[in-house]
Amino acid sequence: MSIRVQRYIAILSVILFLVKIYAWYLTHSVTIFTDAMESTVNVIAGFIGLYSVILAAKPRDSNHPYGHGKVQFVTSAIEGALIMIAGLFIVYEAIAQLVDVKPLHKLDVGIWLILGTGIINFFVGRFAVSHGKKYRSLVVESAGQHLLSDAYATAGISIGILMVIFTKWVWLDSVVALCFAVIISITGYRVLRRSMAGIMDEADEKLLKEVVDFLQKNRRDQWIDLHNLRVIQYGDILHIDAHMSLPWYYSIAQGAKEIDALEELVKTHFGSKVELFIHVDGCLSYQCKLCAVKECPERKEVFIQQVEWNMHNVQTNAKHGEALN
Questions:
Q1: At CA 119, angle to CA 87 and CA 103, rounded to 5?
Q2: pLDDT digits (tens, 9 = 90+) for 104-152
Q3: Whole-angstrom distance, CA of residue 8 vs CA of residue 24
Q4: For residue 94, which of 174, 222, 248, 258 is within the disulfide window of CB 3.0 to 4.6 Å?
Q5: What is the DSSP letter of 309?
């Protein structure tokens, strides 16, 4: 599904780019040139993104034991860098136009052309962002965010062109282009920053909190604690590593059953593409007061209260209650 969406985005980017180039050819407006330059990035990023989605969908192999999903961070980083470069190039052209003001032509036709591309980008961008979040595809979500920023830029650019039409102040064309060049550059930096965070395996706190809150809400009494938790997303595959304390007298078969239950629980919320690596620890006597297992045959202390799993205690490499022992 993500491959099909990204393919449509790539094809659409070519069509809209040609429309904007035609509008620039008609008008000679550096503001419309700004919009066309950002669409150049859309075209390149669209096809690079399509390649990365196809590659990320390949199953893991001996050379890539964690799969190919990390390529999406690389392609998103390229997209962010290209957006920033486009912003700088637009700054250059806008300053050149300010220094040597050239007449503009057929702005009434040009504004309708770019408005049409902006409306299309807005609706396609919203769909792509929604799809990317639902299926956890960074490339499709980044493409959608870029299309939305392109649509907002087109709206602002259209306002700028209207101002030029009504005031006859041709220099406004360059000023508007400079303003949106800054916005485009900031967008590129944000895409690049997020991609580099993924390449460096930076913790995704939003995703981690979602996992922790879901597990806390659905935990079983015999899941005494969860610690040393690490969560990372590669493409559409979610990797979860953790240590879990279970009653020490559980057999290997009982422990495996609990891990299977945990895996099935996670898949109900995060989809089928989940990999869990859970190390099972046996509980210790000082955890009795934190253990909610009813009719435990080995209980040494009266149960008081479970430790609620949160962002802090699930990441520490220590069993819950160890500090109080």
A1: 55
A2: 777 788 888 988 998 998 999 899 888 877 776 767 777 787 788 778 7
A3: 24
A4: 174
A5: P
Phi/psi for 239 (5° steps) reads -105, 130
Which is nearest to 142 in space by CA: 265, 50, 209?
Answer: 50
Strand 237-246: give its sheet, edge to edge. 225-234, 237-246, 274-282
> Rounded distance, CA 46 to CA 62, Å?
29
**Helix (H, G, I), strand (E, B), or coil: what is residue 204?**
coil
Cα 63-265-235 angle, rounded to 5 deg: 35
Please tell me the distance from the alpha carbon of residue 140 to that of residue 157, in angstroms, as a whole number: 25
Query: Could you give the domains of the chain?
Result: 2-199 (1.20.1510.10), 205-324 (3.30.70.1350)
Token pair belonging to 68: 């190919």
Q: How far apart are CA 239 and CA 234, in angstroms?
A: 8
Half-sphere exposure at residue 37, Cβ-oriented, CA atoms within 13 angstroms? 26
State whether the Cα torsion 158-164-165-166 is positive or negative.
Answer: positive
Instruction: Determine the Cα–Cα distance for residues 169 and 146; give it in Å rounded to an integer.
Output: 30
Which of 191, 197, 159, 198 is CA-nearest to residue 85?
191
Low-confidence ranges of the chain (pLDDT < 70): 1, 56-57, 60-62, 64-70, 101-102, 136, 138, 198-203, 234-236, 322-325
Q: Which amino acid is at 178?
A: L
Residue 73 CA to residue 10 CA, distance in Å, equals 18
Q: Count how many residues are written for the chain.
A: 325
Helix (H) or strand (E) holding 278: strand 274-282
Class of residue 210 by CB neighbours under 10 A (exposed 0-12, middle 13-18, buried 19+): middle
Q: Residue 312: how many CB atoms within 10 A of its CB?
A: 8
Q: Where are the alpha helices (DSSP H) in the chain?
A: 2-27, 30-56, 71-99, 107-134, 138-167, 171-199, 205-218, 252-270
